[in-house]
Amino acid sequence: MIYLDGNSLGRLPLAAQARLADAVTREWGDRLIRGWNEGWIDLPARVGGKIAGLIGAQPDEVLVADSTSVNLYKLALAALHAQHGRHTIITDDLNFPSDLYILQGICRQMGPDYRVQVVASPDGIHGPLAGLAQAIDDDTALVTLSHTTFKSSYTYDLTAVTHLAHQHGALVLWDFSHSAGALPIGLNAAGADLAVGCTYKYLNGGPGAPAFLYVRRDLQETLPNPIAGWMGQRRAFDFGLEYEPAPGLARFLSGTPSVLGLTAVECGVDLLLEAGLDRLRAKSVRQSEYLIGLWAARLEPLGFTLNSPRAAARRGSHISLGHPDGWRIAQAYIQEMHVLPDFRRPDNIRLGLTPLYTTFGEIDTAVARLRTVVEEKLYEKYSGEITAVT
Hints:
Blueprint: E1 2-3, H1 14-31, H2 43-55, E2 62-64, H3 68-82, E3 88-92, H4 97-110, E4 115-119, H5 129-135, E5 140-146, H6 158-167, E6 171-175, H7 187-190, E7 194-197, E8 212-215, H8 259-275, H9 277-299, E9 305-306, E10 318-322, H10 326-335, E11 339-340, E12 342-344, E13 348-352, H11 360-375
Helix pairs in contact: 1-8, 2-8, 3-4, 9-11
């Protein structure tokens, strides 16, 4: 089986098997409640500090907690409360739809003066830089985008977009779900304000693993956490009846941390730190260029389109190939060719290249098997009805 779905769920690190077994049998099984004072309570900040090394931030600027959606809600709403007199959130139509749902809900919560403005991509592949420049103005409270877009793999220039927003006094909130662990990210160098991201893709944290959030150090004392929970309280175990936010980033904690989830995430992050993002990115670029070359030679003549940017600097670590029968082809690919991609409407067969474990030989074989599916019309026996999880 060839696994090309690392941009939706990374593989299980071998270290995580042993580490989780120990966490269950010894820490939970034997130490029980004592585990909180033996390292559990420190996990959000400790693992967050390690992720900071992958995204170009300081250790005290990143926490692991909750889900990407919850963290996006917390930081977006906090940003709006801090931007008095501004009412517009700017995003694009390449952003992950869940992000848009959350932003729309926040605007309904804030009142009729608030709105989300969605800027359209010129081609469904590349980010609308010109459109964003035109849309951002003095009423813009927040610009929020996926750094690497989930369908096409287009990757924004972090510094350029952040500077554009700051010129108009807007804050910027980035979603790194499809770029964290896949390419170097310079949050501090770009002057970025806020960010969120998941850990179950390129960070190999496991299904449903907790997410991370980033708040630039100078903003931590000025932004409120809209979900004020006991883990973000200054003295949580005093059990006082009035909320007093903890100093610094800790105020953005809310509920009890997911100990087993955080334990698994740490194993995946340690692997990435050992490998080095610069080396991983260099391999990722070589692999995506190799795959695009194979597409041009072997797949384009069969009706496949390249739905990702050609420029490596503007591309993440996955490649989307379009085909009118993409869904049925993907089913035959999985069931008969034993290649696991994923599918994104309307026609994208999305191939995740995870340089920690994807080999060039696997890419070559995967393309050969994709040709077989089409040339032998293996896909024609499969239904066009799309399943719940793609």
